[in-house]
Amino acid sequence: MKTIIIILSIVLSSFFIQAQTVKKDSAGNYVSVSKASVNKDTGKTFTTSKGEVFKVYESAKGKLYVIRKSKKTNTEYKQYLTVN
């Protein structure tokens, strides 16, 4: 029974392991590359029905969103837009 639990825990933990993205520098050494958050400003705006105006951004995958701020918790979040 213990071996089954150990094997299951190893298998489940392997699902959460991710590969590192690396590149080779000029000296031949490998350097870790982090993925930067891409907030590409489209130059357009989004106006809500209440008259609030937000800048429209484009994600790395091409989806449009605006950055809004919660009135209660004062935290920023992304609201994705669907274009009809």
What does the model show?
- This protein has one helix and six strands.
- It has a domain at 37-84.
- Helices cover 15% and strands 37% of the residues.
- The strands form two sheets. A four-stranded antiparallel sheet has the order 3-4-5-6, with no helix packed on it.
- With 84 residues, it is of the alpha+beta class.
Short structural summary:
With 84 residues, this protein is an alpha+beta fold. The protein contains one helix and six strands.
Which structural traits does this protein have?
flat, 1 helix, 84 residues, 37% strand, alpha+beta, 6 strands, single chain, 4-stranded antiparallel β-sheet
Q: Topology, please?
A:
Elements: H1 2-14, E1 22-24, E2 30-32, E3 40-47, E4 53-58, E5 64-69, E6 76-80
Antiparallel strand pairs: 1-2, 3-4, 4-5, 5-6
Share of helix, binned: 10-25%
Strand line-up of the largest beta sheet: 3-4-5-6
Major sheet details = 4 strands, antiparallel
What percent of residues are in strands? Answer: 35-45%
The tally of strands reads 6
Unreliable spans are none
| SSE order, one letter for each helix or strand | HEEEEEE
Distance between the termini: 56 Å
